[in-house]
Amino acid sequence: MTTPTGATTDGDTPGSTSDLPDNASADAPADPGFRGLSPGKLMWRRFLRDRTGVVSACVVLFFVLVAVLAPVISMLYGNDAETHYGQNDPTLLTDSGLPVAPNGGMSGDFWFGLEPGLGRDVMMQLVYGIRTSLIIAFATSLLTTVIGVALGIAAGYLGGKADFFIGRVIDVLMSFPSQIFLIATMPVVTSLLVPSGQKVPTWLPFVAVTIVLSLLGWMGLARILRGTALALREREFIEAAKVTGASPMRIIFKEILPNLWTPILVQATLALPAFVTAEAGLSYLGVGVSEPVPDWGRMIAGAADYLRTDVTYLLFPGIAMVIFVLAFNLLGDSVRDAFDPKANR
Hints:
Layout: H1 39-48, H2 51-68, H3 70-77, H4 85-88, H5 102-105, H6 122-158, H7 160-174, H8 178-193, H9 204-215, H10 219-232, H11 236-243, H12 248-256, H13 261-284, H14 296-303, H15 312-339
Helix pairs in contact: 1-15, 2-6, 2-15, 6-7, 6-9, 6-10, 6-13, 8-9, 11-12, 13-14, 13-15, 14-15
């Protein structure tokens, strides 16, 4: 508040927080703790102040470590994901294939119980199922990001016929019913990779699912980058680069691409949990990763047959998938807010 003499009181000094709008953030660059920091450090400081984002990052990191250290966990735990313990030991399963012990066969030897029917260790199925989902999701995210960046920037910067053609391709692919397209495409991709009559190698389901998910996964990022590139190509620094004789490729890689890392990273982070659920959905429907490779979607599909008699077998993969997808979605939201704190204001 200003006094009649023009002085200011201690509670209302110029530039104090009382002069800021109600929706102003304490993380604004005007904060003395943020002065002189690079954009990357500003983003990191904002992210560390977001407790939800930090907790979500810890949960995601835990799942990643479990996937990476799956062989080590199997060695220390003493069981693996492929051995049919219930069939090897008749005392573990009933004649109908259900675990003899309560709660799905949970015991000191089998912490999460036994799989009904085959008698495999549920915990190790979960651990290796995390690895399956993450390998496919990370590979698909990388592939869709590369395709989306290349076509999105090309359409936005080049314009003209290139923009028209890429835009129509995006419109056509986005008009496909995704689930039906994925289910119908999986057998086609599999038959193209392996001739009929030959045994399907273990790596094939990973490659086939990655290719199929990538076919319909790049359009959203490409559209976002196209719009951003359209705006950037009219900026003064782009015109200055053209005047100096820079080639289109140099302008794209040196001038435009560095200004697109924020939407690229944010979209990639948000897309990865979607690919995890999509991969699990394909396996649930029987067209994804097949036996004997552990997979969450196939575990949930198998557990549906024992819902009335052994609900424990459904709980573990279901809860694990919910926690992982929720944590990754919250992490994506936190990353977006850290890059652009004004996005949700």
